[in-house]
Design goal:
The chain has 190 residues and is mainly alpha-helical. Helix content is 65%, strand content 0%.
Length: 190
C-alpha cells in the first residue's frame, strides 16, 4: 500500500479518536485496567489498523469508525487472552495497595444476582446478539452505535455521514424491526 493509504488511516483514526477512547474505556475489563490504560488500547488499535490497510480499503460503504471499532474490540479480546490466559500473575488477583486488607467496612448484604439470574441474563444477551446479527447492516450499525457504543443521534449521524433526521428515522425503524424479531422469542415477551 502507498503512503497515501497510511495517511488516510491516520486521518480517519484522529477523527474518531475521541469516540474510540470512550468505547475503550467502557469495554476495558476493570481487572485488566490495573495493567493497561485506554491509551494503550488506542495505540494497539492504531498499529493494528496500519497493518490492515486492505481491510480499510475494502467496503468503502462501511464507516471508518465501524472498522476501527471492530479492530479495537479484537485488540481488547487479544489483551484479555494475553493477560488472563497465561500462567503468571493473574490480574483478577491483583489488589491496589491503597485498598484496605479487611475488605468492605459496611455490613451491606450482597446484592449481586444469583448464578441462575446471571445465567438467564447471559442467555438473553446471547439471543439478542444473535437477532441483531441477523438484521440488515444499516439496522445493525445504528443500533450498535446507539446502544452498545452509547452515541447520541447527532454523533451517529456524523459517523454514518447522514442527516440527523435520517439517523433518527433509521434508528426508529431499526428498533421496530428488532422488536418484531424479538417477539418470536418468549424470553422477550412482556
Amino acid at each position: 500500500m502507498t503512503h497515501d493509504s497510511t495517511s488516510s488511516i491516520t486521518e480517519a483514526f484522529l477523527e474518531n479518536r475521541g469516540r474510540l477512547e470512550r468505547l475503550a474505556a467502557r469495554k476495558l475489563n476493570p481487572q485488566l485496567a490495573t495493567r493497561l490504560s485506554t491509551e494503550d488500547i488506542l495505540q494497539e488499535t492504531f498499529l493494528a489498523a496500519q497493518r490492515r490497510k486492505l481491510f480499510f480499503a475494502s467496503r468503502p460503504d462501511v464507516p471508518a469508525y465501524m472498522k476501527f471499532r471492530t479492530i479495537l474490540l479484537q485488540v481488547l479480546a487479544e489483551c484479555e487472552r494475553r493477560h488472563f490466559g497465561v500462567m503468571k500473575r493473574n490480574p483478577a488477583m491483583e489488589v491496589r495497595i491503597d485498598e484496605t486488607e479487611s475488605g468492605p467496612q459496611d455490613d451491606i448484604a450482597d446484592d449481586s444476582p444469583s448464578p441462575a439470574t446471571h445465567l438467564a441474563n447471559e442467555e438473553r444477551f446471547a439471543l439478542l446478539r444473535h437477532v441483531i446479527a441477523e438484521l440488515a447492516p444499516n439496522d445493525r450499525q445504528i443500533l450498535t452505535l446507539r446502544h452498545f457504543d452509547g452515541f447520541s443521534n447527532m454523533e451517529c449521524a456524523e459517523i454514518l455521514s447522514i442527516d440527523p433526521k435520517a439517523a433518527s428515522i433509521r434508528y426508529a425503524r431499526a428498533l421496530v424491526r428488532l422488536r418484531e424479531r424479538l417477539a418470536d422469542y418468549s424470553e422477550f415477551k412482556t
